[in-house]
Amino acid sequence: MTQFDMPLHQLRTYRSASVEPEDFDAFWAKTLGEARTHELGARFEPVPTGLSTVDAFDVTFAGFDGQPVKGWFLLPAGTSEPLPVVVEFLGYGGGRGLPHTHLLWASAGFAHFVMDTRGQGSGWATGDTPDPVGSAPSFPGFMTRGVEDPYTYYYRRLFTDAVRAVEAARSHPLVDASRTAVTGVSQGGGITLAVAGLVRNLVAVAPDVPFLCDFPRATTVTDRPPYREIGNYLKTHRGRVRQVQETLAYFDGVHFAARATAPALFSTALEDLTCPPSTVFAAFNAYGEDDKAIEVYDFNDHEGGGAFQQAAQLRWLPGRLRRG
Question: Which residues are catalytic?
C-alpha cells in the first residue's frame, strides 16, 4: 500500500464540505434532554479478576431511552481518594471484552471507565449490551441502521450512551469529576469527538485514528468497510443520496469537533484506507480549541501508531489530568 490521499501540506489546511444542519444543537439538546428524563442508575459491582494491581467493577447504567448499557470501571488497587478518570470508547464491531484487557490507564494511576457498545461485540471482542431498537432494511453492519432519519439512526443511540457513560463515570465517589478525559480508537475516536462536542468541562480529548468524520469525503474516497456500507446501501436504495447525507450530517465528527473546548491529541496514518487521513484532518482542522496536536504516522494503515500512540498519550495526558 502507498499513500493515496492528499499530500501532508494540503491535509493541514483541508476543510470538509459537510454541511452542518441548522438545528444541529437543538437536535442534540432534545436527544440528551430526553435521555436525562431517565434515572442514570449507575451500578458498580466488584468482580474478581485475579489481578493484584487493579480493582475492577462491572458497570450498568441507563443510556439512550433509559436502556441498560454495560461497562467496566477499573481503579488502581486500594484507591481511597478521588482520581482523575479516563473514559474510553471502543472500535467498530468490538465490545468491552474482559477487564484484564484494559489495564493501561489504571496502571498509570487513573480511574478508567470502558463503555460497552450497544449491539456490537462479536467482531474482535465480546460485548454484553444489546440494542433493542430495530430499523428499516439496512446493509449488514451498523452504518445504515435507521439512516432514513436522524431520529432513528443507530449512532443517535450510541452517542447518547457515550454522554451518559461520562455522567456515570463522574458519579462514582472515587472519581474527581472535574478531571475527566475521553479517548478511543477508530469508532471509539469518532465517539470521543462526539462527546467532546456535547460534554462541557472535559480536560482532555484523545481521538486515535477517528472514524465517523467528514462523511461526504469518506464515503467517496475509500471502498473499505465500514464506510463502504453506506455506498452499498445507496447502490441498492437509488435516489436516497441526499436523504442519507442529511442524516449523516447530524453525526459528523467535524461538527462535534467545532464545538469542542478541551485540549486534544489526535492521530492519523497516511496509508489508512479505513479512516482516510483527509477525514481525520477535517475534524482536526475544525477542532474548536487551539491547544491541539496531531501525531502523523507516514507508513501505517489503520493500525496507526498502535503502542507508539499509547506512549504519546502517556506523555501528553497525565499532565492535563493532574492539572485539571
Answer: 186, 272, 302
Q: Are 231 and 291 in contact (CB under 8 A)?
A: no
C-alpha pair distances (Å), 87 with each of 3, 83, 147, 227: 32, 13, 27, 25
Matching residue, cell 463515570: 169
Amino acid identity of residue 246, one-letter, is: E
Q: What angle do CA 169, 129, 46 make, to 5 degrees?
A: 50
Is the model's pLDDT at 1 over the cut of 70? no
Mean pLDDT for the chain overall: 96
Q: Give the pLDDT score at 134.
A: 84
Residue 153 has pLDDT above 70, yes or no: yes
Whose CA is closest to 264, among 218, 312, 322, 214?
312
Q: Which residues contact 8 (CB under 8 A, 6 or more apart)?
A: 270, 296
